[in-house]
C-alpha cells in the first residue's frame, strides 16, 4: 500500500528537513542490510555521462546495494558515491505514486486514475492543436530519459502532432559540442574512446571539473598520470582551481571567456614553431571562415593567427597566463605521443560555445592528434543518455533520429517512409529551441507542454523569467517525474513514472556506447514507464483528433508488455530501421546482444558479429571502423565520411576571440560562474533525498577568492548577497583560492529560493548552438551579515 498524500507530504518535509540537520530516519536502508544482497543484476549507473556499468543488489525484491562491474570497459569496477547510493531512491517515500491533477494552478492537486489522467492529457493537447495549430504544443525532455522514451515521444510529436517542438535539456549542455563536432568533423560525437586514456601522454582538460563531474573517468586519468609521472603531462585550463587541477602539471587560470584567445595562441605557437603535422593537414584538412564556410588557405589562417601571439593572448586572458606558459602547453600538446583533450561545460555553456569547441578541434587537426592511439578531441557528455537518447534518437528540435537534420528534405522524407506516415507529415521547419520554447510559453504561444525527466523551473538560466510562462493559467503543463520538484509546482497534471531498474531501456554514454538496463523491480504505487504513458496517450490523442496517423505512430507497439517487450520493440524499430546505413548504425546492438556484453556496444555496429565484440572503438579508421572501409574513396588510412562534410575533410576554423554576453563593469564588477559538486546531481531532486549526500553538502555557498573577500570585509560563513541585473541570492561565503580574483562560483543544486542561483544567471545563448551562457555573467557581492543558521528547503508540492 502506498502512503496517503498527507502522509507522503509530511514525510517529504520531514526527510528534507532531517537531511539538512543530519538526523537519521527509520526508513533508510541500512548498510548492514546492503552486505546481504542475495542476487545482483546488471545495468548502468543512473547519473553521469561516464556510463559506469553497475550491479544492483537485491535482497528478495528489496534493493540494498550497488557495486561496479569489474569487467566493464567504462569503469573497470569503480563507482562514485552517487552511483553507489541511488538504489535508495527506489523505495524512497517521496516517490510520486499516483497521477495528480488540478484544473487551475491556483488549486490543490487531487489524485486521479490513469484513465482520467490520459483523457485529460489527450483532450488538452488536442484542444491546443485544434484551436491554435500544431506549433502550440511541445515536448521538453531530457538526456536522462531512456532512448526508447525519447524516440517514442519525438515520433508522436513530429509525425503524430506534426510539430518539431521536441526539445530537451541537452540544449543547456551538449548543443555547443554537437555544433562543434558537426562543423569541424562533419559528424557528431567523439572519434575515440575512454580506452585512449591509458594510451595518452598529454591530457588537455579545459572547462571541465572531471574530478567531481566525471569522477570515475578522472580516476583513470589520475592513474595514468601516477603511473607515468614524468612521461604524461596534464594541463588544466579553468578560471577556477578545482579538484581536477590537483593532478595538473600546469594550471592555466584566465578571465572567464578568454580561452578563445588562449586556444588561438596555442595554434599560433604550433605554427610558428613548426609543430604542426603538414602531411596530416594536406591529406585531411581545409581551412574555413565565416557564416558561408568560405574555404581559405593556410597562409590566410596564419595571418589570422597573427592577432594571437602569446604576448597578446596573455594580456587578453589575464590571470596566471604568461607567454611562456602558452608556449609550453602548445609544445606538450603538439609533440606528445598522444594528446587527448577533454572538456565539458566551461567550454559549451558560452555564447561562443561552438567556436570554443572548434578551436579545440583545430589544435587536434593541426597536429594530427586524432585517430591514433591516445589522441582525440574528446568532449565529455554530462548526462547518462544525452548522446544516445537525445543527440542520436531525435531529441532536439532540429534533428531527426540518427543524426538527420530536419531541414534536409530527403532525410525527412526517408524518416516518414520508415515510419509509414504520409510524405510531408513532418514539418520542414525546426521547432523551438529551449530558450525560444520557454519564451513562447511566456508569450502564450504554446498552450500545452509535456515536461519529462527534467526540471526547467530550476535549471533554466534566469529562471524567474521563464517561471512566468509556466505559471500562466492558459498554459496546460504536464510534468512526468519520480519526485515532486520545483517544476511540478507549476504543473496541471503530474504523472508518476518508473525509475531506473524499474523499467527497461538503453542509455548511450560519452563514448558512443549503448548499454541496456532491464527492469527488475516494479515501480512504486501506480507509477508507470514513460513508454507505456506515451503509447496510451497517443491512442487517446488519435481518437480526440480523429487522426489515424497518430495511431499509426504507436501501432507497432500495441498490446506489448511495458516491462520489456514494448521498449524492445521501440529499440528494434529505431535501430533496425532508423539507424540502418547511418553513421550511428546500431543494427547489431539488439537487446539480446546487449545482454550478452558486460559493457554494451559502441557504434558504428552494423552487424551482430561486430556488436558482440563490442562494436567500434575508433571511428574513421580503416581496419577498425567498418564504415570507414565501406565509405572508402581512396587508399588513405583515415576516411572522414561524416555526413555533414561532403568534401570528406576536417575543417580548421578561423574563429576570433569574443567576450561573454555580459562582462563585469563598475556596477556589477564580478564574474559569476556556476557548476557542480561531486555529491549532488543537478537540481538535487534525487541526491537531495539521499541522506549521506545531503550531509556532505547540505547547501550551496558562494566561493570567493581570499583577496576579494579581504577587500570586501567578508569572512568565512558570512552571508553574502550575490546580485545580478536579473535577481539575487543570499549565500554563505566559502573563501579559498579557487575562483580567480574577480570571479565568484556557486553550485546550482540548491532548491532553496534564497540560494537557487539560476535566479541570478543570464539567459544569453550561442547564436549557433542556442546553448545558454550559464558559465558567465556579471554580478556584485556584498556582506549582509555574519554566519546564520540556514533554513532548510522543504521539497513539497504546493497544495
Ligand atoms: N557530481 C555531478 N556530476 C555531474 C553532474 C552533476 O550534476 N553532478 N552533471 C552532469 C552533467 S549533465 C554535466 S553537463 C557535467 C558538467 O561537468 P563540468 O562542466 O565538468 O562541471 P561544471 O562544474 O558545470 O563546470 C566545469 C568548470 O567550468 C569552469 N569554467 C567556468 N567558466 C569557464 C571559462 O570561461 N572557460 C573555461 N575553460 N572553464 C570555465 C568552471 O570554473 C568549472 O570548474 O557533469 C555531469 N556530471
Ligand atoms: N546555473 C546552472 N544551471 C544549469 C547548469 C549549470 O551548469 N549551471 N547546467 C545545465 C545542464 S548541463 C543540464 S544537463 C541541466 C539539467 O537540468 P535538469 O534536467 O532540470 O535537472 P535534473 O535534476 O537532472 O532533472 C531531472 C529530473 O528527472 C527526474 N527523474 C529521475 N529519473 C526519472 C525517470 O526515470 N523518469 C522521469 N520522468 N523523471 C525522472 C528527477 O527527479 C529530476 O526532477 O541543467 C542546466 N542548468
Ligand atoms: S562516475 Fe558517473 S556513471 Fe560512474 S558511478 Fe559516478 S555518477 Fe555514476
Ligand atoms: Mo548537462
UniProtKB/TrEMBL annotation:
Record's comment on post-translational modification: Predicted to be exported by the Tat system. The position of the signal peptide cleavage has not been experimentally proven.
Keywords, ordered alphabetically: 4Fe-4S, Electron transport, Iron, Iron-sulfur, Metal-binding, Molybdenum, Nitrate assimilation, Oxidoreductase, Periplasm, Signal, Transport
Binding site for Mo-bis(molybdopterin guanine dinucleotide): 82, 144, 169, 173, 257-259, 345, 349, 480-481, 503, 674-683, 758, 775
Root EC class: oxidoreductase
Cofactor: [4Fe-4S] cluster; Mo-bis(molybdopterin guanine dinucleotide)
Residues where [4Fe-4S] cluster binds: 45, 48, 52, 80
Cofactor note: Binds 1 [4Fe-4S] cluster. Binds 1 molybdenum-bis(molybdopterin guanine dinucleotide) (Mo-bis-MGD) cofactor per subunit.
Superkingdom, natural source: Bacteria
PROSITE patterns for this protein: 4FE4S_MOW_BIS_MGD, TAT
Catalytic activity: 2 Fe(II)-[cytochrome] + nitrate + 2 H(+) = 2 Fe(III)-[cytochrome] + nitrite + H2O
Keyword Protein biosynthesis applies: no
Keyword Oxidoreductase applies: yes
Enzyme Commission (EC) number: 1.9.6.1
Pfam family for this entry, one: Molydop_binding
GO CC terms of this entry: cell envelope; extracellular region; membrane; nitrate reductase complex
SMART domains from the UniProt entry: Molybdop_Fe4S4
Molecular functions per Gene Ontology: 4 iron, 4 sulfur cluster binding; electron transfer activity; iron ion binding; molybdenum ion binding; molybdopterin cofactor binding; nitrate reductase (cytochrome) activity
Gene Ontology BP terms: cellular respiration; Mo-molybdopterin cofactor biosynthetic process; nitrate assimilation
Assembly and oligomerization: Heterodimer of a large and a small subunit. Component of the nitrate reductase NapAB complex composed of NapA and NapB.
Protein family per UniProt: Belongs to the prokaryotic molybdopterin-containing oxidoreductase family. NasA/NapA/NarB subfamily.
Protein name: Nitrate reductase
Upper taxonomic lineage: Bacteria, Pseudomonadati, Thermodesulfobacteriota, Thermodesulfobacteria, Thermodesulfobacteriales
Gene behind the chain: napA
Amino acid at each position: 500500500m502506498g502512503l496517503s498524500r498527507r502522509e507522503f507530504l509530511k514525510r517529504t518535509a520531514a526527510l528534507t528537513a532531517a537531511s539538512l540537520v543530519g538526523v537519521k530516519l527509520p526508513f533508510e536502508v541500512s548498510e548492514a542490510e546492503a552486505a546481504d544482497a542475495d542476487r545482483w543484476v546488471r545495468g548502468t549507473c543512473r547519473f553521469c555521462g561516464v556510463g559506469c556499468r553497475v550491479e544492483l543488489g537485491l535482497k528478495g525484491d528489496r534493493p540494498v546495494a550497488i557495486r561496479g562491474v569489474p569487467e566493464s570497459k567504462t569503469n573497470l569496477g569503480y563507482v562514485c558515491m552517487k552511483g553507489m547510493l541511488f538504489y535508495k531512491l527506489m523505495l524512497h517515500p517521496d516517490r510520486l505514486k499516483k497521477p495528480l491533477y488540478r484544473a487551475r494552478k491556483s488549486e490543490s492537486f487531487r489524485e486521479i486514475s490513469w484513465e482520467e489522467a490520459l483523457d485529460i492529457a489527450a483532450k488538452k493537447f488536442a484542444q491546443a492543436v485544434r484551436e491554435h495549430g500544431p506549433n502550440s504544443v511541445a515536448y521538453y525532455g531530457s538526456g536522462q530519459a531512456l532512448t526508447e522514451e525519447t524516440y517514442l515521444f519525438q515520433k508522436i510529436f513530429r509525425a503524430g502532432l506534426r510539430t518539431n517542438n521536441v526539445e530537451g535539456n541537452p540544449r543547456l549542455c551538449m548543443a555547443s559540442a554537437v555544433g562543434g563536432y558537426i562543423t569541424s568533423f562533419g559528424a557528431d560525437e567523439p572519434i575515440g574512446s575512454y580506452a585512449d586514456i591509458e594510451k595518452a601522454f598529454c591530457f588537455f582538460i579545459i572547462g571541465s571539473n572531471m574530478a567531481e563531474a566525471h569522477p570515475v573517468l578522472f580516476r583513470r586519468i589520475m592513474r595514468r598520470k601516477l603511473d607515468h609521472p614524468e612521461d604524461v603531462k596534464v594541463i588544466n585550463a579553468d578560471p577556477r582551481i578545482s579538484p581536477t587541477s590537483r593532478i595538473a602539471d600546469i594550471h592555466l587560470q584566465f578571465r572567464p571567456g578568454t580561452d578563445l584567445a588562449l586556444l588561438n595562441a596555442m595554434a599560433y605557437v604550433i605554427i610558428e614553431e613548426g609543430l604542426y603535422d603538414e602531411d596530416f593537414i594536406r591529406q585531411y584538412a581545409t581551412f574555413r571562415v565565416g557564416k558561408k564556410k568560405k574555404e581559405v588557405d593556410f597562409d590566410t589562417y596564419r595571418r589570422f593567427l597573427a592577432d594571437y601571439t602569446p604576448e597578446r593572448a596573455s594580456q587578453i586572458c589575464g590571470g596566471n597566463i604568461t607567454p611562456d606558459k602558452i608556449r609550453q602547453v602548445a609544445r606538450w600538446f603538439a609533440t606528445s605521443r598522444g594528446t587527448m583533450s577533454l572538456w565539458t561545460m566551461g567550454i559549451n555553456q558560452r555564447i561562443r560555445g561552438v567556436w570554443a569547441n572548434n578551436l579545440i578541434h583545430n589544435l587536434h587537426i593541426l597536429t594530427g592528434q586524432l585517430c591514433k592511439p591516445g589522441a582525440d578531441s574528446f568532449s565529455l557528455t554530462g548526462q547518462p543518455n544525452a548522446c544516445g537518447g537525445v543527440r542520436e534518437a531525435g531529441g532536439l528540435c532540429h534533428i531527426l533520429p540518427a543524426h538527420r537534420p530536419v531541414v534536409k528534405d530527403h532525410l525527412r522524407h526517408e524518416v516518414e517512409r520508415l515510419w509509414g506516415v504520409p510524405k510531408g507529415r513532418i514539418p520542414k521547419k525546426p521547432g523551438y529551441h529551449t530558450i525560444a520554447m520557454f519564451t513562447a510559453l511566456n508569450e502564450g504561444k504554446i498552450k500545452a507542454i509535456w515536461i519529462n525527466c527534467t526540471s526547467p523551473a530550476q535549471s533554466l538560466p534566469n529562471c524567474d523569467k521563464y517561471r512566468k510562462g509556466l505559471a500562466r493559467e492558459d498554459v496546460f503543463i504536464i510534468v512526468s517525474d519520480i519526485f515532486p520538484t520545483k517544476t511540478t509546482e507549476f504543473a496541471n497534471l503530474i504523472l508518476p513514472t518508473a525509475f531506473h531498474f524499474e523499467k527497461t531501456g538503453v542509455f548511450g554514454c560519452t563514448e558512443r556506447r549503448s548499454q541496456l538496463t532491464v527492469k527488475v523491480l516494479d515501480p512504486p504505487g501506480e507509477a508507470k514507464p514513460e513508454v507505456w504513458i506515451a503509447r496510451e496517450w497517443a491512442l487517446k490523442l488519435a481518437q480526440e483528433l480523429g487522426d489515424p496517423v497518430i495511431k499509426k505512430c504507436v501501432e507497432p507497439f500495441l498490446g506489448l508488455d511495458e516491462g520489456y517487450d514494448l521498449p524492445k520493440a521501440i529499440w528494434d524499430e529505431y535501430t533496425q530501421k532508423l539507424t540502418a546505413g547511418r553513421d550511428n548504425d546500431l543494427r547489431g546492438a539488439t537487446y539480446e546482444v546487449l545482454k550478452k556484453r558486460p559493457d554494451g556496444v559502441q557504434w558504428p555496429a552494423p552487424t551482430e558479429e561486430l556488436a558482440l565484440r563490442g562494436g567500434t572503438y575508433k571511428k574513421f579508421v580503416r581496419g577498425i571502423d567498418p564504415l570507414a572501409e565501406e565509405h572508402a574513396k581512396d587508399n588513405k588510412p583515415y576516411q572522414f565520411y561524416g555526413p555533414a562534410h561532403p568534401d570528406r575533410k576536417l575543417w580548421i576554423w578561423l574563429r576570433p576571440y569574443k567576450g561573454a554576453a555580459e562582462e563585469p563593469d563598475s556596477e556589477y564588477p564580478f564574474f559569476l560562474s556556476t557548476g557542480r559538486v561531486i555529491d549532488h546531481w543537478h537540481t538535487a531532486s534525487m541526491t537531495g533525498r539521499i541522506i549521506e549526500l545531503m550531509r556532505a553538502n547540505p547547501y550551496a555557498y558562494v566561493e570567493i577568492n581570499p583577496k576579494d573577500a579581504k577587500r570586501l570585509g567578508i569572512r568565512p560563513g558570512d552571508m553574502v548577497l550575490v546580485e545580478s541585473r536579473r535577481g539575487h541570492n543570499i549565500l554563505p561565503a566559502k573563501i579559498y583560492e579557487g575562483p580567480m580574483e574577480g570571479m565568484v562560483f556557486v553550485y546550482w543544486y540548491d532548491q532553496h529560493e534564497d540560494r537557487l542561483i539560476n535566479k541570478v544567471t543570464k539567459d544569453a545563448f550561442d547564436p549557433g548552438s542556442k546553448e545558454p551562457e550559464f558559465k558567465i555573467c556579471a554580478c556584485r557581492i556584498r556582506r549582509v551579515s555574519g554566519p546564520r543558521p540556514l533554513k532548510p528547503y522543504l521539497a513539497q508540492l504546493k497544495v
